[in-house]
Design goal:
This protein has about 260 residues and is of the alpha+beta class. The chain has one domain (about 10-200): Thiolase/Chalcone synthase (Peroxisomal Thiolase, Chain A, domain 1, 3-Layer(aba) Sandwich), CATH 3.40.47.10. It is built from 9 helices and 8 strands. It has helices at about 20-30, 50-55, 60-75, 90-105, 110-115, 120-130, 145-160, 220-225, 235-240; strands at about 5-15, 85, 135-140, 165-170, 185-195, 200-210, 245-250, 255-260. A hairpin with a 4-residue loop joins strand 7 (about 245-250) and strand 8 (about 255-260). Helix 1 crosses helix 9 (about 235-240) and helix 3 (about 60-75) packs across helix 6. The longest helix is centred in the first third of the chain and has 17 residues, at about 60-75.
Amino acid sequence: MKSIGPLAIEGIAFWSSRLPGWDIARSVIRGEQPAPAAPSSRPAPALLAPTERRRAPDTVAVALEVASRACESAGLAPAALPSVFASTHGDLAISDHMCATLASAPTLISPIKFHNSVHNAAAGYWSIGTGSTAPYTAISAFHYTFAAGLLETAIQVISGEQPVLYVAFDIEAKGALATVAPSRGLLGVALALSLSPKNLSRRMTLRVQDGAAATAATSPAAALVADNALAPCLPLFECLAKDQAAGIDLALSDNKILSVTLD
């Protein structure tokens, strides 16, 4: 496959239970400060009204937080952006609750729980909250979700010749499903990608290649997100935090990698 790019990284966002925000995450990755001693509960995205903010599940809270921050740092209007939302597991807490309810009292299934359980729930909240009629895509590819979503976003930028927002997130797994699909804490990341770089934009080029060895995270932040299903995203954000030219490989399948070159 030929190279995709270069693409401009116009906006970056990061939020995890131990690294609540890109500024903090970047400093911890660089070794400039320790991580906060106590984990944060979850973000409170200003996009939602207070009542909706309280009722929204963790998936929606973390996804909307990083989506909003990436658009803000890019100086792009959220309503105008096509978007790609990626999550390894979606909301396993709600899925587990629904499975337990179906097994014990199926007539008590909550319509609100159901609409929050679907894989595109966060994308739906985003489109409603921003008033966007731009298309969105929701992706899951198990262990390869982050790389698959990044590749899909890059292809959409090239084919549509317009900026695209990429949002990836995973949360704490609950109940019986946690034994087969483990994930700890909250982690969300977002990138706003375009073809027209601003003066300070980082540039990224992608290529799909044969291989199975992905780049490992090495910064002090690695241990803080290692148990989350989205942890494979961290090597890319380590490179972005260090503001250096670099190349990394992200696992795309059992025998394919997504090679990412940053300059």
